[in-house]
Amino acid sequence: MLLVVVVGSTAAWMSIPFPYQQQQTTDALVSNDQVEVNQHDFIEFVPKQGASKGLIVYPGGKTTAETFAPLAQQFASHGIYVAIMPMPLNTAFLGIDKANIAIEQRSDISTWYVAGHSLGGVAAAEYAKSAEQSIAGLILWASYPGSDISGLQLPVISISAEKDLQTTPEKIALNKAKMPNSAIYEEISNGNHWHFAHYQDAMTEQQGLLTRQQQQQKVVELSLQFML
Q1: What is the C-alpha to C-alpha distance for residues 224 and 209, in angstroms, rounded to an integer?
Q2: Each residue's pLDDT tens digit in the chain (228 positions)?
Q3: How far apart are CA 144 and CA 159, in angstroms?
Q4: With contact defined as beta carbons under 8 Å apart, do 163 and 137 qualify?
């Protein structure tokens, strides 16, 4: 009975998402002259100019897919097809293979990358271990693998933040042994954990940070350099 209560309580807690900027995310879910947005099994951002490369995004724990919508719009405006995968109970570990849904439905995309933020990155790393034939690379945003992926024959990039109090620089360094020797490491100066997406400002009270816009510009820039 105790186990049932613990599991049930954890599931209920995870299902309640971190607060996010609902107006900005709602605006980002509207199609415009550059990007068509569709919502079905996942949220997709389709460049109207066409795209051959796709980015599948795994949100972090307790995070809705919508929280990453404004960031996805930025990638799509650069010609990258983006699919954000909603996760059961907002927990990517319960949907590790969800990237397959987008890959199977979008045969027009020839090259795929998988990105994950925080706990979403841990799940994305697990997915990459079994999907080397399906994807061209793994992008970790404020994240590191939970198990050894050092033998992964894929390009991997870690994009972290200098002032991240959750996925700290120390944790990134400690987990390098689990990463391929060829992995690329990029740290965003004065960046933090929550500005990788559109969480509420109240999530951080740190001073001297980049603005959300500035940090996301760096995230997009570094990720695009890796993909292109």
Answers
A1: 23
A2: 443 333 344 445 456 879 889 999 999 999 999 999 999 999 999 999 999 999 999 999 999 999 999 999 999 999 999 999 999 998 998 999 999 999 999 999 999 999 999 999 999 999 999 999 999 999 999 999 999 999 999 999 999 999 999 999 999 999 999 999 999 999 999 999 999 999 999 888 788 899 999 999 999 999 999 998
A3: 10
A4: no
Q: Could you tell me the two tokens for 195? A: 């500005």
Residue pair 132/154 in contact (Cβ under 8 Å)? The answer is yes
pTM above the 0.90 mark?
yes
Query: Which tokens hold the place of 8?
Result: 């049930």
To the nearest 10 degrees (0 to 180), the angle between helices 212-227 and 69-77 is: 50
- Produce one character per residue of 208-219: b if its CB has 16 or more CB atoms within 10 Å, e if not: ebbebeebbebb
CA–CA distance, 168 with 162 (Å, rounded to integer): 7
End-to-end CA, the chain: 52
58 strand-pairing partners: 116
Six-digit token pair at 112?
């795929």
Q: Which two tokens stand for residue 187?
A: 């740290």
> Which ranges constitute the DSSP H helices of 98-185?
99-105, 119-129, 169-174
